Amino acid sequence: MSTEGIRAVARHVPIPARKVRRVINQVRGLHVDEALEILLFLPHSAARPVRKLIRSAIANAEENLGIPRDDLYVAVITADDGPGVMPGKG
């Protein structure tokens, strides 16, 4: 499997996508260790789930594909809106 196939998905994170995008724009294109260090010191609440997601992607790459951590970068990272509140429920 190629390195383009490495992915991790966080679903149903209770933070608006707009606020998560503010965080992921800071780490896109960086080496994973540098991204994790930046996320550790960001004051935004979205930094914690994004950091957890990147750590999950690193673990997937190392355990499943045997790719060393030194070769990993945050190439593509996105945040989309999740399910909205159903009519009559909120």
Protein model, in words:
The protein has a single domain (3-71), classed as Alpha-Beta Complex (Ribosomal Protein L22, Chain A), CATH 3.90.470.10. By secondary structure, the protein is mainly α. Helix 2 packs antiparallel against helix 3. It has three helices and no strands.
The dominant shape is globular
Can you tell me the CATH superfamily? Ribosomal protein L22/L17
Distance between the termini: 43 Å
**Oligomeric state of the chains present here:** single chain
CATH architecture term: Alpha-Beta Complex
- The percentage helix is 40-55%
SSE layout and pairing:
Blueprint: H1 17-27, H2 32-41, H3 47-65
Helix pairs in contact: 2-3
Summary keywords:
90 residues, mainly alpha, Ribosomal Protein L22, Chain A, 44% helix
Q: Briefly, what is this?
A:
The protein is mainly α and about 90 residues long. The protein has three helices and no strands.
